[in-house]
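TA notes, week 10

Several of you asked for a full example with nothing omitted. So below is the full record: C-alpha cells for the whole chain, then the designed sequence directly under it. When grading your own attempts, check the secondary structure regions first.
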C-alpha cells in the first residue's frame, strides 16, 4: 500500500511562531510512531517563505500539491496538519486555503477558528448560548466616550483585564487595577488588534479541559489547573524555563458537580461553535463557586509543558491513536 503524504505546516511568522515549532516537533514525533505516512514538514518563516527541514524552499500549489523547488518535484498531499498558534492557523486563514485546495486537514474549519480566535466574538457567542463568561465591554477605537466607558467599568469592577481582541499567549493582555494604568494598557492593546476587550478579573482558580472527538464522540476531560504567581498566566509563566507556574493535569479537590457542569459547558461550546477534532477550553472558578468559560483554543499548545496532550493521555486516550484515526477517516 502506498504511504499517504501528510503536510505538517507550522511557524507563521507571528508572535507565537517559536511555540508552534515546538508543538510541531511533538506532532512529528507522534506521526513517526505511526510509521505509515510520509511526513512533509514545512515551516512558514517570518519573511513569508515556506521551507522544509533542510531549509529548501517549497510551495503549496493548487489541488494540494507540494512543490519542492530545489529538486523540481511535485507531490500530491493527502492530509494537512496546520500546527499554528495564532495566524495563519487559529485565525482560520490557512484552513480556507485547504478548503479551496480540497485538502483534508486536522482541526476546526475557517469559520469556527476565526470566531474563537477573536476574544470578543467568542464572548458574544457565549452570551447568545447562555454560557457563563466574565462581564465585559469592548471598544473599537480610543475616543472620549470609550475612555469614559472603560473608566466607569474599572471603577465598578476594581480589577480588570484589557486585551487585544485577536492575540494569544497572553500577548496584548494587561491586568489593570489603577486608573493611571488604564489608558496605556488600552493603547498597547490596540497596537496588536483592531478591537479591545475589557473584562472583569475573576479571582479564583484557572482550569482547562481538553475537548476532542474520539471514536465519533465529543469528549471533555477532567479539568487540569494552572497555578500562576499573582494569578496571571502571562507569556513568561507559560513558556520560560524559569516559570514559577504550576500545572496539574488533574485539578485537585474539585466538586463532582462542578466538573459535570464544566464538561457540559465545554461540550456545548464545542458543538454549538462547530469546533472539530480538538480544542482546549479554559475556565475560571471563582471564590463563590461560579464557573466561567474564559476562552477556546482551537489549536492548543503541544509543548512539553502543555496540558492538552497530557489531559488526553490522563483520560486514557492515546494521542497517537487520536491522530491516526482522524487522518485515516479524513483521507478519501
Ligand atoms: N477575566 C480574567 N480574570 C482572571 N484572570 C484572567 C482573566 N482574563 C485573563 N486572565 C489571565 O490572563 C491569562 C491570559 O488571558 P487569556 O484570555 O487566556 O489570553 P490568551 O489567549 O493570550 O491565553 C489567563 O490565562 C489568566 O491567567
Ligand atoms: Mg489563555
Amino acid at each position: 500500500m502506498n504511504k499517504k503524504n501528510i503536510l505538517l505546516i507550522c511557524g507563521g511568522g507571528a508572535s507565537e511562531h517559536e511555540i508552534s515549532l515546538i508543538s510541531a516537533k511533538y506532532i512529528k514525533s507522534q506521526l513517526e510512531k505511526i510509521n505509515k505516512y510520509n511526513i512533509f514538514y514545512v515551516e512558514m518563516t517570518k519573511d513569508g517563505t515556506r521551507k522544509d527541514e533542510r531549509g529548501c524552499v517549497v510551495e503549496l500549489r493548487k489541488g494540494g500539491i507540494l512543490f519542492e523547488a530545489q529538486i523540481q518535484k511535485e507531490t500530491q498531499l493527502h492530509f494537512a496538519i496546520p500546527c499554528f498558534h495564532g495566524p495563519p492557523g487559529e485565525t482560520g486563514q490557512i484552513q480556507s486555503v485547504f478548503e479551496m485546495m480540497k485538502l483534508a486537514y486536522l482541526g476546526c474549519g475557517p469559520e469556527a477558528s476565526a470566531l474563537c480566535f477573536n476574544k470578543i466574538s467568542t464572548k458574544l457567542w457565549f452570551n447568545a448560548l447562555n454560557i457563563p463568561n466574565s462581564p465585559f465591554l469592548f471598544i473599537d477605537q480610543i475616543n472620549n466616550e470609550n475612555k469614559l466607558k472603560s473608566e466607569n467599568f474599572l471603577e465598578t469592577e476594581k480589577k480588570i483585564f484589557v486585551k487585544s481582541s485577536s492575540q494569544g499567549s497572553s500577548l496584548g493582555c494587561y491586568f489593570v487595577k489603577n486608573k493611571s494604568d488604564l489608558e496605556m494598557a488600552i493603547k498597547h492593546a490596540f497596537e496588536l488588534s483592531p478591537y479591545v476587550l475589557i473584562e472583569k478579573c475573576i479571582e479564583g482558580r484557572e482550569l482547562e479541559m481538553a475537548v476532542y472527538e474520539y471514536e465519533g464522540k465529543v469528549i471533555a476531560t477532567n479539568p487540569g489547573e494552572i497555578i500562576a504567581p499573582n494569578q496571571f498566566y502571562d507569556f513568561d509563566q507559560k513558556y520560560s524555563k524559569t516559570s514559577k507556574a504550576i500545572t496539574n493535569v488533574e485539578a485537585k479537590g474539585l466538586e463532582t458537580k462542578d466538573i459535570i457542569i464544566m464538561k457540559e459547558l465545554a461540550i456545548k461550546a464545542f458543538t454549538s461553535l462547530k469546533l472539530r477534532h480538538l480544542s482546549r477550553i479554559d475556565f475560571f472558578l471563582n471564590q463563590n463557586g461560579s464557573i466561567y468559560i474564559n476562552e477556546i483554543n482551537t489549536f492548543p499548545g503541544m509543548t512539553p509543558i502543555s496540558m492538552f496532550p497530557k489531559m488526553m493521555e490522563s483520560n486514557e486516550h492515546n494521542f497517537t491513536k487520536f491522530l491516526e484515526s482522524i487522518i485515516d477517516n479524513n483521507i478519501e
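The chain is about 35% helix and 30% strand. Use that as a sanity check on your answer.
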